[in-house]
Amino acid sequence: QVQLVESGGGLVQAGGSLRLSCEASGRTSIVYAMGWFRQAPGKEREFVAAISGSGGRTDYADSVKGRFTISRDNAKNTVYLQMNSLKPEDTAVYYCAASAYYPLRQLSYWGQGTQVTVSS
């Protein structure tokens, strides 16, 4: 079992930045591919970014390319999402998830989410 805990969310003005963290605990001897997803009110959960277990491969949703950067520190069992040039439409609950596969599929573990609110 793996437990994922997100942090770093909050309220920010449009154009601002936030860095989300997702710390894994439990069975971290297996290095999982990781992803960030988000869900806005009344909308379905959507993919934001993904990173392979080694960190050598990344992928982004078109809506965040050039603004968000995913990274990881395997020594700290932590994945980050640096979010710059935030827009009101980025407002959502952000979740991290773990998968044994890259590209991501069969997401085995999810965090509880962290709220990001971008004011205009």
What does this structure look like?
The protein has 120 residues and is mostly beta strands. 0% of the residues lie in helices and 52% in strands. The protein contains no helices and 11 strands. It has strands spanning 2-7, 10-13, 18-26, 33-39, 46-51, 58-60, 68-73, 78-83, 92-99, 109-110, 114-119. Strands 2, 4, 5, 6, 9, 10 and 11 form a 7-stranded mixed beta sheet that branches. It has a 4-stranded antiparallel beta sheet with strand order 1-3-8-7, with no helix packed on it. It starts with a strand and ends with a strand. The mean pLDDT is 95.
Q: How many H/I helices? A: 0
**Sheet bearing the most strands, described?**
7 strands, mixed
- From the alpha carbons, calculate the radius of gyration and give it in angstroms: 13 Å
Question: Mean pLDDT, rounded to whole units?
Answer: 95
Percentage beta strand: over 45%
Portion of residues within helices:
under 10%
Distance between the termini: 40 Å
Structural class: mainly beta
User: What are the secondary-structure elements, in order, as H or E?
Assistant: EEEEEEEEEEE
Low-confidence stretches: none
Large-scale geometry? globular
Q: Total strand count, please?
A: 11
